[in-house]
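Run log // design_07
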């Protein structure tokens, strides 16, 4: 059976997708910073779905040198890897020029550099193996720069373009590249926000994402509708309206 590596697997979408993929019979390689949570999840997933194999490993994706080592360990445990889901992410929210640069830097380090480190390590393995599937997590925040989340929007636009480049670079290789643009999915990342338009549950989000992964789509919003249309509107919204969002 196919195997998937999920970073940031201990909460929100990563956690729900781990259960969903186990239910669909995938072998799982899971990582995050909380080892205790990973071990607890491993037991719960085995009890609920008994997937063919499940391996867990501590990984802070901003420890860039540790990323290929963790991936090699997990590949060794599972005997191979088919899909990487570069999911680990944070959303701190900050204002430019308000002495909050540390938050902006952390956001870029986790969401952009951490995802790039994960994808780089996985692609090195896929190139040797001769095939593979890279799934990157952007956001509808990549469609338009929003106030109070400049680094988050930049990180998500950055990873989307990075994956576009990767798709072109591996065009003649047997490597599929999927970019996902989730809207609001109910997780701790956004539970503090006053407004979460078109919110869906994390279980529903995980099912939609699993379907999109299995279809090997090039890119998609999550859910597809209404964000496929709202995303286009966001791009042309006057700045005065964006400033009030
Ligand atoms: N929820 C949404 O509506 C939404 C919308 C668009 C995009 N996304 C994206 O989807 C991804 C998952 O978000 P979520 O909503 O599920 O968030 P979440 O519930 O806060 O989960 C984030 C996960 O990332 C892990 N993580 C954080 N920093 C890490 C680091 N330095 N190294 C490794 N793992 C780290 C956390 O685990 P540990 O603390 O144990 O490390 C946790 O498992 C993110 O990339 C987010 O930007 C979410």
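design_07 sequence
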């Amino acid at each position: 059976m196919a195997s998937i590596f999920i970073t940031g697997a201990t909460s929100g979408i990563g956690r729900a997708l781990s259960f969903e993929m186990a239910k669909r019979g995938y072998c799982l390689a899971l990582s995050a910073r909380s080892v205790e949570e990973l071990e607890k999840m491993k037991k719960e997933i085995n009890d609920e779905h008994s997937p063919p194999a499940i391996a867990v490993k501590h990984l802070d994706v901003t420890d860039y040198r540790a990323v290929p080592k963790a991936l090699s360990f997990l590949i060794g445990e599972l005997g191979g890897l088919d899909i990487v889901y570069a999911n680990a992410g944070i959303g701190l929210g900050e204002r430019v020029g308000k002495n909050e640069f540390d938050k902006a830097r952390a956001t870029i380090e986790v969401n952009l550099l951490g995802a790039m480190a994960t994808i780089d390590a996985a692609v090195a393995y896929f190139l040797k193996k001769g095939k593979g599937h890279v799934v990157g997590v952007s956001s509808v925040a990549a469609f338009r720069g929003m106030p109070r989340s400049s680094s988050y929007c930049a990180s998500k636009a950055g990873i989307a373009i990075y994956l576009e480049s990767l798709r072109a670079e591996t065009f003649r290789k047997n490597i599929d590249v999927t970019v996902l643009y989730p809207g609001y999915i109910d997780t701790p990342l956004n539970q503090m926000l006053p407004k979460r338009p078109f919110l869906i549950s994390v279980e529903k989000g995980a099912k939609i994402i699993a379907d999109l992964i299995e279809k090997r789509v090039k890119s998609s919003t999550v859910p597809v509708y209404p964000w496929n249309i709202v995303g286009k509107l966001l791009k042309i919204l006057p700045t005065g309206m964006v400033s009030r969002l």
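Helices lie at 12-23, 35-49, 66-78, 101-129, 150-169, 202-215, 224-236, 239-242.
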